[in-house]
Each structure stands twice: as C-alpha cells, then as structure tokens.
Amino acid sequence: MAIPVPTRQLFINGDWTEPLLKKRIPIINPSTEEIIGDIPAATAEDVDVAVEASRSALTRNKGKDWATASGAVRAKYLRAIAAKIKERKPELAKLETVDCGKPLKESEADMDDVISCFEYYADLAEGLDAKQKAPISLPLKAFKSYVIKEPIGVVGLIVPWNYPLLMAIWKVAPALAAGCAAILKPSELASATCLELGEVCREVDLPAGVLNILPGLGSEAGAPLASHPHVDKIAFTGSTRTAIKIMTAAAQRVKPVTLELGGKGPIIVFEDCDIDKAVEWTIFGCFYTNGQICSATSRLIVHESIAEEFLDRLVKWSENIKISDPLEEGCKLGPIVSKGQYENVMKFISNAKSEGATILYGGNRPKHLEKGYYVEPTIITDVNTSMQIWREEVFGPVLCVKTFTTEDEAIELANDTHYGLGGAVVSKDLERCDRVSKALQLGAVWVNCSQPCFCQAPFGGVKWSGFGRELGEWGLENYLIVKQVTEYVSDEQWGWYEPPKQ
C-alpha cells in the first residue's frame, strides 16, 4: 500500500511559504528507487526571511510572548507538540520509513523517543523558573550576586538524514525550552517528517517565528544559515568535513557552535563474555539503522582466544537478519538512504578487498532484492590499522575485525583513531570494564551493550567527533546564556577615591 506523502512548502513565521526561487527536490523511496513526492528547497533568500521571522518572535511584545515568558509557558507548547505527535505516530513512522529507508519498527521507536524528548525538555523548561536568580556566595558582605539564564537568541539547527525527526528534536526541544527561536535545516535526503513538525506547530498555535523549517541543499540553505550575521548560534550534526566549513563561517562572527560529528567506534570483546549476548550487541551496534549511525561500533576488537568461535557465531546471527522492504513485518535491515550513499558504501567494501582484507560475510546486494539501495550486512577480517576500512567512517552495515591479546593492546587499538564519539566494552569483569571505560578516548562508553540512548543522558564526542553535548541538562545549557547580576548593598560610601572637599 502506498504511503501518502504530503506536499509542503517551507515553514516560515508560522505558515507555509513557497520558496522565493520556487525550487523543489524530489523524494526518492530508497527501497524502490521511485520518486514518491518532493520537498521545497530553500536558498539564501528564504534564510533571510526566516531569520527576520525568528528575530521578530523574540522581540514581539517585548519578548513576553516567548523569550522572556516563563518556562512553564514554553513547557505547555512542548507538551502540546508531544501530544500531537503521539496522535500521528503511525502515520509519521511510515512516512519516515519510506523517506529514509529505516525499518518501520525502528521508525516507530524513533517517534516514541521524539515524544519523550519533548516531554523531558518541557519538564526542564519549567525547572528553569526555579533556577532564575540563583544566589552566588561572595566573600564580601557589601555585595549580593545572582545568576540569570537567558536564551542565546536565534539558533540555526542543521541535522542529518539517518534519524531525520529524532535528530531534529534533539536540538529543537531544548532550544525552544530555553526560549530561543530556531531555524531547522533538515537534510535534503530526508525532510518529510521534519516538515510535518511544522504542521504540528500550526495545530498547537506555537507563536509565529519561534520555529522555522527550511529544507534544502547544504550549499544553498545550510551555508547561508551558518554564516548569517543575525543567527546567534549553530548546532550541527553531520560530517567532520562540513563541520569545518561551519566553524570557519561561524568564526568570522565569533559565533558559538555545537558539533556532533562522525565516528569509528570500537567494541572490545573480552574472552570471558557470554558469546551470544556479545554477538547480538555487536551486530546491533553496527547494523541497526541500516548501519547509518554516527556512533556505530563498527570496529570489532575481539580477544584472540575466542575469535574463531565468535566470528562463526557472528556470521550465523548475520545470516538470520531479515533484509526486506522496511515496511514489511520483521524487517531488521532496510536500504541505504540514497544511490550516492549506496555507491559510497560499496566502494569502501571494494577498496577493503583491493587492500588485502577478507570479506568474511556479505559485501553485496542481497540476491532477492533487485531494486532499492540494499547492502548485505558485511563482516571484514584480515584488516590492518592502516586500511581505509579501519580508519574511515563508512556509514553503512559494515563491520571490520581485529584481534588482541592484552587489555593494553585492546585499548591502544580502540584509541588509534581520529574519532571519539562512542564505543563499547564487553566483559563479565566489571572492574576491567571500569578500567577500560576510563582509558577510552570517547564521549560515551557502553558496558556490555552498544547504542543505548536516553534523552536524560549527555551525548557528544571528542577529537574529530566534535564538541559540546546534546541531551540531558547539558543539551538545554547549549541554548542558554549565563548572566551575572551583582548589587552593592552597603549603606557606606565605597571609599576607593578621596571625596572632593566641601
């Protein structure tokens, strides 16, 4: 059954607005390679209009409509948005699946996380009210000091295509909770559900201009947003290469940025593990979301004493993964998001073979699927640390494998990368897990699991994986300015200068 794809315009100042240059981009279903609709394509001209709408939203009624309203007022809107998304969950999940190719069960889980994220930041928005004017203890009794937290202003939010709506909400929810006005730039490869967020905002009467949604190409919409003189901050999730361009643009105006970038995460499996449990977490950590996860634990580092048995079980579990149309019941692996990304993944696999690695399993298009951008779950062995497949992010269902002998060797292999987003350690020895967790140069470490994510816990990386943290209270702080207010309360003259003679 065909999934209806709404035809939308840009969402600017609380209403649907045709792009000034009238550009549109086709939506291609990655499981069928068919055009199923199109999205509006914003350009610099539309960015200017959206920025003006955002700035007006912050100053309307002297800020009382949004920026200086109580956190409780903003929380009401966030909860209303969550409730509307809950009502539309089945429809939004299917739309997400046909747009980006992830299995329907995953899209449904994403919608649950979207709802939870809005509700969580609604709670934090209310909590902001109690934290205003928090007193500061000072050594001089002649002074009294407190802190005010204020929204940073207009924020540009640039998000990827692997979790289209969820990644957007990781930024939108805390930005709105803080009292900012936001301009969301979804990926041109998957914008459909982000546009539906605009319709939800219309339905709950979110004040005009508080959230604007501008799909479009990175060069035509993302770059003008990042460099715009009246955008106060950029939060970006995507490639390190694009992040460098964003940082360069932001630096011209000393504009703050938060960056959540790529990864090449390790999963270290020790000899005392429960092998089947460890195998399942290994494939989940690399093949979930069709392998398109920035924090994917795509480098398996397994103890040499169990490597043969572990790999045998890994292949058997991989053979059992259902690869199909992502709308089918039981699908666990759908297509790569686009033809270009599919070709990129296949090139990585081809390069690994030409460099001398062994394709232990997969590496091809599934034989039963003639259409769609499908790649079999792929396991690559006989890898050395100089190979491209070990060092670069693939963003597809491709796992490379090395063995180790000692704990120190495993840590050295894990840390030998430019990236530092997420990684895992698997062992029954929890003291060892603790040691290894502390030694790994990562923003997140998962013990005896891979990829759990909760909106209450911080997420972000080190090294080439970016800086700043999303989610949790840290995510809200991204969008707040801390202002110190200090008052002289003594009745005495300050007395620093000699007073004039009477």
TrEMBL record:
Coiled coil: none annotated. Pfam families: Aldedh (PF00171). It catalyses: 3-aminopropanal + NAD(+) + H2O = beta-alanine + NADH + 2 H(+); 4-aminobutanal + NAD(+) + H2O = 4-aminobutanoate + NADH + 2 H(+). Residues 17-485 form the Aldehyde dehydrogenase domain. Its EC number is 1.2.1.19. Transmembrane segments: none annotated. The keyword tRNA-binding does not apply. Keywords: NAD, Oxidoreductase, Sodium. Pathway: Amine and polyamine biosynthesis; betaine biosynthesis via choline pathway; betaine from betaine aldehyde: step 1/1. It is an enzyme of class 1 (oxidoreductase). CDD domains: ALDH_F10_BADH (cd07110). Belongs to the aldehyde dehydrogenase family. This is aminobutyraldehyde dehydrogenase.
